[in-house]
Amino acid sequence: xxxxxxxxxxxxxxxxxxxxxxxxxxxxxxxxxxxxxxxxxxxxxxxxxxxxxxxxxxxxxxxxxxxxxxxxxxxxxxxxxxxxxxxxxxxxxxxxxxxxxxxxxxxxxxxxxxxxxxxxxxxxxxxxxxxxxxxxxxxxxxxxxxxxxxxxxxxxxxxxxxxxxxxxxxxxxxxxxxxxxxxxxxxxxxxxxxxxxxxxxxxxxxxxxxxxxxxxxxxxxxxxxxxxxxxxxxxxxxxxxxxxxxxxxxxxxxxxxxxxxxxxxxxxxxxxxxxxxxxxxxxxxxxxxxxxxxxxxxxxxxxxxxxxxxxxxxxxxxxxxxxxxxxxxxxxxxxxxxxxxxxxxxxxxxxxx
Amino acid sequence: xxxxxxxxxxxxxxxxxxxxxxxxxxxxxxxxxxxxxxxxxxxxxxxxxxxxxxxxxxxxxxxxxxxxxxxxxxxxxxxxxxxxxxxxxxxxxxxxxxxxxxxxxxxxxxxxxxxxxxxxxxxxxxxxxxxxxxxxxxxxxxxxxxxxxxxxxxxxxxxxxxxxxxxxxxxxxxxxxxxxxxxxxxxxxxxxxxxxxxxxxxxxxxxxxxxxxxxxxxxxxxxxxxxxxxxxxxxxxxxxxxxxxxxxxxxxxxxxxxxxxxxxxxxxxxxxxxxxxxxxxxxxxxxxxxxxxx
Lengths: 353, 294
Description:
The complex is a heterodimer. Chain A is mostly helical. Chain A has helices spanning about 15-20, 25-40, 50-75, 80-100, 105-120, 130-150, 150-155, 175-195, 200-210, 215-220, 225-250, 260-270, 275-300, 310-330, 335-350, and strands spanning about 160, 165-170, 170, 250. In chain A, the strands form two sheets. Chain A has a two-stranded antiparallel sheet. A two-stranded antiparallel sheet of chain A has the order 2-3. Chain B is mainly alpha-helical. Chain B is about 75% helix and about 0% strand. Chain B has a two-stranded antiparallel sheet with strand order 1-2. The longest helix of chain B is centred in the first third of the chain and has 31 residues, at about 1-30. The radius of gyration of chain B is 19 Å and the shape is globular. Chains A and B meet through helix 6, helix 12 and helix 14 of A and helix 4, helix 9 and helix 11 of B.
């Protein structure tokens, strides 16, 4: 038997099966289960405020995984995620509030509708790439928001709509805890799906398109098909996240889905790590908690600098922008890479060279 | 007919400001292949500096304008050096996110320094409206148009005849060849950013004189995207003509279509045009077609 206290000196795979495995080492499986258990148990001890924050982080993570499939793995930049989030939220709102359907039908439908809209706006990717595509998705953002805020009869216009919490039989997901578990289940499913996606033909095709689209095409990958497919898959998850967010905050209105939200999601995957499923989660936690930490920091300092709280909004923007720029300059691969570096350091310690 | 002409004149004036701001945008793209999402914030900062100089320090308009322009140029230089230099040759998304981050930082600084409320420029131009046939024009519109035209002429001459301007065109054409001819490409990038900041500041100050100044002025930064795409991202005449077209279409939409749908279409119109252009003629009216070779 192996000595459990001796670390590996590296990961050495001797066949393809090992290389493709989700758990590369059996110890990782233990660690993941322990982590899952911790996240499943922690709401029983935490306050409602903390659980609420965790729920928001989780919902952001679902959307960020969606965006990462498109931007991080397939290399198609999208500045329209805020609006797609809105499409998800509004679809669910209309289905539940106007048509009286149950949340369990409305949420997947919201995903599908967003996927269709996303696929439509992905069509220009046939001819455009890089910068031009980014600008096209920016146009999608503006146009979708315009439709949402003008289609009064369906969306309630600028006033928005009110949603209810989902129900299961007679049980209503009203408490912070129950909604956290709902989000948790969806997040786990999303994570497992996307981890597995990139072990399949489709996922590898996405990565090939990102790395060199011409080479991918030469190898027989239908570029157009896979680009649009990436838009569809990614928008599906963003739509699900939008529906979850809508039912959590119980309100949808156009200004909740402005371009700032799109930028926030881009920042999440950038800070977390482009092309990393877990990176999306790290980034979502980081960016969601950033303003919260900033606010408590300002409150702590308000005794010393009483003027500080007046400039909080401005400071939030400055810090947010600085985080993006500093990550881009110093660690373009994001938190996922930092975490990997730390792990590698300890794996090889004390001979880490 | 009068209404149409009135809308047309408004469109031309606003469009000419778009042209000016888009000029800076195109210049940066041409020289360094970067899309500058912080153009709107450049505009805002230049405008606020000018406004503060006038209102708080009682400096005459022309002097304040000059100081604001010098300040903008320095700002452009510094930002290029600190923020953008590390991203030369990086993937598109890094460049886009860097300028988005930059715009967030600048917007935050504007919030902290100048707050949210709308401020107005003290009256610089006379308020006596000018009658041209049947249409009525405020002098500030005419002055704006005049200043924009002067700026555009100056820049056209600058690119055509000055040594620096020729060096900039050479760099845009082929960076390596330019470098081997002894042109400092880094210097050219810095100058491009400085000029972009200057033209944005002028555009902002003119718009500020027309409509007042608040943080929403930075939305122009996004509106120049349709302008630049319509004209072709790397074409300076394209930016000028694109600006006028978008300005006129926007104004006419505001006049004729907005009452039908209940407003708001004016702001979206440029982006609808943008999508159409991208679908049918992605490189715009005058843009250079990118040909990819393996």
